[in-house]
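Entry for the shared binder. Reason: the reviewer on the internal report wants the predicted structure included alongside the sequence.
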Amino acid sequence: MRKAMMDYFKSKGEIPEFYLDPYCNVKLIYGNKNKEGKVWIIEIYNHNLTEILEVKIKQTPNGCKIFLEGNLRKWKYGGKNAVNDLSYSAYCECVELISKRLGVDSKFIYELELNYIEIGGNIKLPSAYDRFIPCLTSYPELTIERWSASSVYFKGAKYRLIFYDKLLEMKDRRIISGKVADRLRKHLFILRFEIKINAKSGYRKKKEIRTFKSFKDNWNDLIEDWKSSFYKAKICDLFSDSKRVERNELNPLETKNYHNFLFTKKVGVDRALYTFQYFSKNRKSEMVNYIQELHEHFTKGDKWHFYNNVLIAVSNKKDSLLIKNYST
């Protein structure tokens, strides 16, 4: 089963008359202030009746306006199955089930406009690679919003990129117990990479992803773009050993830089960043570049293959996601 990557979404559009099946929960019905008709607040249950999508429907003279949102992957697989990515066939099944729940033809759901989507995938690696996340230091045209040992956020005007430790996230959300998470993390590191798109105009793609149908039709393009987006991230080599440095051969500036490098190695990149920011009047981007330069200058680069192995794992993940010889 080929798997891809829609998580949370927000959508809107129009549908004709609707006929809710028994597995919809009508939370509220009230009159529209503009006297256009009624408004329904509805929860749509999945097959197992464990997860919901949220729906708001406004009656108009020509039909109904609909606002639909939720986590499609979670709706399909359940909240406790947090590692699975959504397959192409499962995506189509979700659209069909939404249509069935609302009593409308699936073409109306496929035509809904997507005004927010999250695209993500899990990359499984050996446990030694859990040091990879703080290696991520910068991204072209984006700024760092958050940086820690377990998660890194890059922010733009219209979209964000997030890298995080999936097992730690599952532990924090109590999807799995701390003991189970700790046991798994001794052997496994699951790197989660997500693209959160705030507006359809904000994502750089050859083909715009406007609707559920265009998401389906451009499935392989989205997967290729997910991979290329990962590859653009700039890293700081935290895996390689430090160079042997003769301090009496360093000039005053090099001595200062070397001490800052040793400080970074001791406290970690995230804590060093915030410390350097404090003394540099909060110029975060300059400090990120400075930390990268320190590691380029004072490390051997002997463990660069760790980073290359991550890229290989991302590429392999991409290949497993692609749909071969499919028609829309």
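Summary line for the report: The chain has three domains: 8-111, 114-234+305-328, 247-299.
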